[in-house]
Structures are given as C-alpha cells and as structure tokens.
Amino acid sequence: MLRRLTERSNGGEDKRGLILHAAVRVFARKGFHGCRVGDIAEEAGVAHGLLYHYFRSKDEVLECVFNETWADILAAARMVEETDEPARERLSGIAKILLRAWRRDPDLVRVVIREVVRSPELQRRISEIHAAFAAIERIIVRGQEEGEFRSDVDPRLASFVFYGALEEILTGWVLGTLDDGDEQIARAEQTVVEIVCGGLAPDRQAAKL
Amino acid sequence: MLRRLTERSNGGEDKRGLILHAAVRVFARKGFHGCRVGDIAEEAGVAHGLLYHYFRSKDEVLECVFNETWADILAAARMVEETDEPARERLSGIAKILLRAWRRDPDLVRVVIREVVRSPELQRRISEIHAAFAAIERIIVRGQEEGEFRSDVDPRLASFVFYGALEEILTGWVLGTLDDGDEQIARAEQTVVEIVCGGLAPDRQAAKL
Amino acid sequence: MLRRLTERSNGGEDKRGLILHAAVRVFARKGFHGCRVGDIAEEAGVAHGLLYHYFRSKDEVLECVFNETWADILAAARMVEETDEPARERLSGIAKILLRAWRRDPDLVRVVIREVVRSPELQRRISEIHAAFAAIERIIVRGQEEGEFRSDVDPRLASFVFYGALEEILTGWVLGTLDDGDEQIARAEQTVVEIVCGGLAPDRQAAKL
Amino acid sequence: MLRRLTERSNGGEDKRGLILHAAVRVFARKGFHGCRVGDIAEEAGVAHGLLYHYFRSKDEVLECVFNETWADILAAARMVEETDEPARERLSGIAKILLRAWRRDPDLVRVVIREVVRSPELQRRISEIHAAFAAIERIIVRGQEEGEFRSDVDPRLASFVFYGALEEILTGWVLGTLDDGDEQIARAEQTVVEIVCGGLAPDRQAAKL
DNA sequence: AATGAATGAGTTTTCATTCAT
DNA sequence: TATGAATGAAAACTCATTCAT
User: Fold this and answer.
1) B72-97: pLDDT as tens digits
2) Residues 13-32 of chain A whose Cβ lies under 8 A from any Cβ of chain B
3) What is the C-alpha separation between C41 and B30, in angstroms, rounded?
4) Architecture of domain A3-208
C-alpha cells in the first residue's frame, strides 16, 4: 500500500493507502504525538471516522507505516546478502538501499527514524528491525571467513558500527544538519563503506586489539 | 543537580534533584509521552503540584534533564579535544566518555538517546547536541592536517560515522539487543576506535574514493 | 414476524424477521445500549445497512420487538378475561400466559422485561403495557363484585401485587436466580395464584384492613 | 455519602457526595444512558474533570449510587429480620422500609429500580441484591416453622411474590401509573402484607397445592 | 434488495496546569 | 515549601445513519 521505499509508486491508490500516505506526511511534519487523528484525516481528505475503518487506533497507523515499509527494506537487504559479490560490495549494496530511501521518500524515512526506531512503545513489535542487523552481521562474518575482513573484530559490534553510521547520516539529513544533495548522498555511501571496510581490512598490523 | 554523567554524584539531594532523578527513571521506563506528571511526582515521593515550583512545565523537566547532562558531556569532550595526544587517542577519549556514561547511569542515557536527541519538539537544542559533532569533526580535521588520517574523506561525514557508531551501540544496550557487561563496554570502545581509525588511516592505497 | 410468545412460530422466515430475531438474541445477551447495530446485523448474517431498509432506527427495532410481542400477550389476556370461569381461574390463565412465555422464548421475555418495561425512553408505550394491568384489575373487580374476592382491598393495588409477583419470577428466571425447569414453571403458576387468591379470599376475618 | 434512604440527610456535604447526589437527580431525570458526564458535573456545579477525581468512570458512579444505597436498605432489612415479632410484623417492616424509601428519596428509588436492578451490565456486582431476597425468605421459613404460615408453599417462590409486589408498586410510583400520596403509601404497605400473609395463612383448606 | 465504505456529531476520558490552603 | 482538589482544553474513539454501487 505504501509507496515502497525500494520500488516505484503504484499509481492507483485506495483509501487505506491514501490515509497511510497522509499519515506519513503528517507524522513527518508534526511528529506522531504532535498531531491529531483529525490532522491525518484532513490531510487524506477523508472523515476521521474512516481511519477507524482501516485501523484500530492511531498507534496502529504508525505501526503499519513501519511494517509495510521495513519489510521492503529487509527484502532488499536479503537480496543483497545472497549475492556472491565481495563483502565490501554487499555492504555497499546495503548502504545504497538505506541511504537512497532518503531521496525516494524523505518523509517516510523521517518518520521511521524519529518515531518508530526508538519508540519505547513499539519496541516489542520490532524484532524485525534487528533482522537487518543480522543480515549485516552475516555479511561481515562471511567476509571474515573468506579472509576479506580481519577476524579479530566482533562481527556483531561491527554491524552496529556500520548500521549506526548509516542511521546517523540519515538522521543528519532528517534534522537538516547534513547536506543531502544527490552528490552528497553518493559520497556518503562511499565514505561509510570506505571507512568501515577499511577499518575491517585484514592487511593491517592490527594494533593490540 | 542530576547525577553527572561524567563525575560522581553529589551526595546531598534536594527536592529539585529528587524530581529530576525520578523523571529520568520514569522517562526511561515509559517514555516522555507515555508518562504523566503524576508518575514523576509519585516516583519522587512528592505531590505533583510541587513539580511546578521547580519547573515551568513537563517539557521543561525533559529539557533540564538534557541540559544538565549534555553540558557535562560537552565539557568533557572539549577537554579531550584540547589534549595534545594523537587523534586516535582523542577519539578514544570521546568514545570512553559516551560509552561509559552508560555504565554510570543507563536510564539517563536511555532518555537522552530516545527522547531528546530525536525529538521533533526539541530541535532548538540540536545546535547544542551537534556541538559534540563539531568537536569530533575538529579532532578528525586536525588528524588529517597532521597526517594521522587520510585527507580524502569528508571529516564531517566521518564524524557522523564515528558518532553514529557510538550511539548505535548505546542504543543496543538501551534496547537490550547488545551485551553490556563491563568487559563488553571496554571492548566496544576499542572496536569502534579500531574500525573508524583503521578506516581513516592514510597508509592505504585509498582505492578510488 | 417474531416468533409469537403465545402461538407457534411461523415456519418461513423473511429477512425482516431474521433481523428482529437476531435483535432479540443480541439485546438479551448484551442489552440494548450494550450492543451495536452491527452486532445485530452480524447475528442475523446480513450487512448492517440492510437493517435500515426494514427499520427506521435502532430504537425502532426495539419498539417492534415489543409491539409484536406484547400485542399477542394482550390479546391472549383479553381472551382469558372474557371467559366466564371463576376469577381465580382467569387469574390462573393470565399467569399461565406470562410465565409460559418464558419457556417458549426466554430471550424475548428477557428483553421485554429488561429493556422495554422500564425504559425511560419508551414511556409512551406504557399505556399499552398497562393495558395488561387493566385486564387483571377488571378480573379482580369482577371477582369482588361476584363475592369471590373480599371487597376491602384496592383492586388496582391488588393487580400490582399479582403482576409484580409474576414479573419478579420471570426476572428470577432471566437472571438465573430461580430454577426454571418445566416443573418449577408449573409450580410457580400455582403458587402465585394460590397466594394472591388466598390473600384475596373473603372468608377471612379481614383484620382491620 | 449519599443521603441515606433509611436515615436523615447529613447536613455537611463533601464534593464526592455532591456529585453522587447530582448523579441521582440526573439519572432519575434522563436515565443513565440518556445523560452525559457533563450533565452530572453541571448539576453538581463542578467541572466534569472532578468527577474523575472521585470515580473511575461514569459506570462507577452508578455503581456507587447503588452500593451506598442498598447497603442501607439491607442493613435495615436485617435489623427487622432479627426482631422477635410475628413473621407478619417482620414482613410488614420490610415493606415499610422499601416503600417509604420512595417518599424519602424518589429519585434514588427511580434510579435503583430503572437503571440498576435490571441492568445487564451490573448483574455481576449484584449478588447483594439477592441478600434482600434471602432475608425475606428466612422470615417466611421461620414463619412456616412456627406455624404462622402454611408449609406447603415454596418459601423461595413466596419471597419472590412478596418482593415482586413491592417492587411493582414502587415501579408504579416511579412511572406515575399509581398514586403515591402519603395515604396511598400507607395503604400499599397494608395491602401487600394483607394479601401475601393472607395467602400464606395456614388455617385454609389449602386446596391441592 | 443488499452491501459496506463513508460520514461526523457526540461522548467519555485524560492530564497538564492552577491555586487555595 | 508543599499539597492535592479543582479546572477545562484537548483528543481519541464510537457508532448510528447515509448512500453510492
């Protein structure tokens, strides 16, 4: 229903999708707690009662925004994971997916970053978030097994470094503290991969780590 | 008043501090929007009316939590910045400050991470938040100038990678998805510094970045 | 349309009857105010919109339940009234009609007792409800005139005693606080008639009433 | 808190009692489902929010009206039960208590009769209602044991007859279908006792019951 | 006749904030 | 300082009813 982060928009738009999109825009503008159900309905051009035809509550709307978004991201990440390219290329693929989502639908990323990812209320449902971490971790582990990455680094921690770097850059764009021109986006991708994969490269005298 | 993240607690505890501490615990447990003023007062063992003697509003309580916390972090970061140690050591110092705050007061970190850093309402505070980024960036720039780090990487982006990695690890501890034993904390510090400084090291044939 | 309280069900069942029956079951289970129009429709297996083809409103459904029920009761009561049997036999006939309705359709009785008879909104129907009282009162008056009952008792009050006794027993069955086996039903009939007619018997030294 | 049905009003009136009394008046006038929380607050002359300081919900207000009322009735009934007067006198005492409550506080009786006694929602809490029945039944049983009443009548059914007669008369007054002048009230008491005790008298040839 | 999406007035409830004591 | 009763704006949510299909 949602304009997919990873694919193109699906022209035809039913009411449920209309509401979900409106919600994304409104959440992005005013925040989840800063808007009323009526704001979403107004943005969607429907009566607020209709929202309850499609969703059980305001909370459920946010949850759906997340579910029907992250699933796409995850699927894309899995596809990248299964490639047989070098680990560096696969991490680069993951970075592309996450960072380019910003150019495709900034409001959506804004909402996921600000409202969902750290929400204490939604933490339960979000084991799925960590599936993304798992994918990154698996890529790193395989990179270590195949000698592309040094083995003396905890792959779990490394996945947090990689994912955290990406999320922070998205946050910078969301909050407006980091340039987000097309060129900047491409450069951000390269930089993250360069730094993290550089740091994981094996041919170094690995200090006393 | 708050138990400082960077220093020790100041034994005597006045009512204002009592309320502020209680707020941190309650915000950590239920989130800012998920708790009532009465919850904070109850946790502090005072009547909720008293809260309004010390703070203008519930919002102001959160703001104070942030102010009286982040100021410490910032001061500590500035001290590290002005050292004459190698850039790597200085980044390591920053990592220590942020990550060890977790061991000192997890609830406080939880609140800053979840409620303040990404709050749409507190965007005015962002400049202060990002003073920390500036410190990191300056360390990197100096590292580049002094030949310790490669120069073909945007230092601003690099500071996001470093800070994002640290914040993600804190988040992992906050959400319980990452081990936070004493040993793990020490290792996390090392790993982040190792990866990021490794990735920034100049003696590499720097690909085509 | 409703399964008559006093006669047998009319085999074939149109949609209107389907809805009316469903309403009786739902009202009995959750109360008029405790159910939604959609509950009735669901119980009837139709879309809730259809309800508005047959009834002007939810209120009208309840009113129809009453009308098409009480009319039967009343007609039966009138028939009994016009008999030439002794007053005691005629009261016994009334008791039979009311109490046996319970065995025939408990839900319907439940609804009439709980939702209609005492409803503040349906007070206009009270005249019809109390036509039943009038019938009972007339029987008693005639009993007094013919010497079967003592004359120093207000027949109107006596009719309240008689009707109240019956309704309370029905209520006991409705609420499950009184046994309602077939045998109990027959015995209840006898007991009410016995007590009330006994109390109305003239051959007593009538105290100082 | 409530103006007791069985005792005099307690001059001094706290806010909770104010609200409870206002609720009784409003429920009596418009019915529980026909009034809004705001109506109660307005009648009490307080802000509607205050209602939630003293009660958890609108439902709880009704429940309290009942609890803090019926307890009194029950206590009074128990006192009567323990007397050593003849059973007839004791039943007469019960009748007095119930019927005179009407003169003392008609609104309260109206509410209890219309909203509480038959409410499907409140049935759970109301095992207490039946404590009244039990008291009546015990009086009758003792009357039978002591030869004052005939023994071939089920005392449980007889208690329903007695209580039902009283409730129906109250209902008549509530609905305005029965005169309720002072004289009528006294006469109603006598009539109910006369009929029921007359019907229960042993010196009759008891038919084939 | 039949459906169920759509409407929106109406209601309960919450809760930050005030203020008399 | 300290309390907690009192306020009332604000919001989520319900649900009877309408209506295009």
Assistant:
1) 888 999 999 999 999 999 999 999 99
2) 30-31
3) 41
4) Orthogonal Bundle (1.10)
